[in-house]
Amino acid sequence: MVRIPSFVFLMFFIAFWSCGSKEIEENDHLEIESVYFMIEDSLTLDYLHYQNAGLKYVENEVFVASLFLSSDNFSFHIPTANPTLEINYRDKSSIDFSYLFQKGDSVLIKVKDKMPWFEVVNRKTKAHEINFESLRNKALFQSRYTGYQDFYLIWNMSKGNPMVDFRRDLNATKSKALDKLSLEKAWLDSLLQLEAIPEKAADYFMNKTEFERNKLALFDPKKDSLSLTDLSNVILEISDYSNLYQMEFADLVLDRLDGFSDENVDVENLFKGQFGKILLFKYLERQIFRLSFEESEQLIAQYRDDVKSSWFSILEYNTRSTNSLIRDILLEDEFGNIFEFADLLAQKSGKYLYIDFWAAWCIPCIRSFPASLALNEKHNDLEVLYLSIDENQNLWKDAVQKYDINIPNQSFLITNREESVFLKGIQLHSIPRYLIFDKEGNFIHPNAPKPDKKEVLERFISEHKE
Questions:
Q1: Which residue spans adopt a coiled-coil conformation according to this UniProt entry (predicted)?
Q2: pLDDT by residue (tens digit) across 61-111?
Q3: Whole-number Å distance between alpha carbons of 429 and 363
Q4: What angle do CA 461, 462, 466 make, to 5 degrees?
Q5: Which of 97, 201, 348, 367 has the fewest Cβ atoms within 10 angstroms?
Q6: CA angle 224, 227, 233 (to 5 degrees)
């Protein structure tokens, strides 16, 4: 492998920046709306690619975006409307570092001692301004990882091994993690006094440290799961929502909300305060994916005044864009005939269509066939269409015969799964998955109830018949 010298990239980067600076001087109204990144050399890029390294950042205030450092991408930029840009680096070795850059920064990405190292090349930075967390781990912890990373590792292990008592280890690692957070806070104070880190960066890392302390307090080794009540109390103390780590905490809260059934919790309490607004948006975003389009419109209208108008527009757009997706699925029947899904919808006009996405290897799909077959036989004005995502045609044909779903003109193999705009638009990431189209061929439910939820499903259909 030929190593391209790092100074070649650096000279190009400086030249690029100089050109950009000249253009800005000539156009005073123009602002640099991005942070620019460049990998130091080809070996660094190969190493990052091998480590499955990636960056996360907040996009448009509410979305967590990911960018993977691929083997053919030496430079890139990340737009930001804010004065600063928060970046989180992660790789397969569980390295997890946060960085805070200024809008307009040009950043050279290096690797030192098998650890990421970021250098701003177009302005002078203080010693601990950029790589604070990497330096912290080395100076304070003598470890590649934080104390709370160690704790969460054992916590996740304990959930997968219910027969093993992890409480002693959890208590010990939690205590160490809290001690390390206190040590980090004191170190930040001293760095600020020594002017080794600017105030804005110190505030960011100080707030993150306090947030991690509050989050860690939620994990009680004596309990099997997180308390939604405790989560809601932490939410009320969060005055901001803009940081990446808070966005990911919002997902943690909503995952817990999805799973809770034994707690008497006022869900509306979760949506109070500044952080509650982003939590509400993310909650609505999840819910509209699960509801019919009519139910989605009713739900988001209910909270119109509780979310920012720009966020409300995103919710409306997501609902309408999914509803209006082009029906570009290509289907093959067991005789080798090819159909377009749109033509099939027109052909079956006058009936409700219950779409069952399945595969021969999907056990939950197969277990649902008796219920969907019963649904198909019970209603004269409803048909179940079995659409397989199998890649092996013979396995599909065998399964169709074996499980009695070889119904003429109702059982098909999808032949363009990777290319279909419709399948990408509905985010067909897992199966079984069910859709409903009405008698006119209108797409009315992107994530319909399972066939064994007979009462819920039949009530939904009967309501649309009225």
A1: none
A2: 778 889 998 767 889 999 988 899 999 999 999 999 999 999 999 999 999
A3: 16
A4: 120
A5: 367
A6: 155
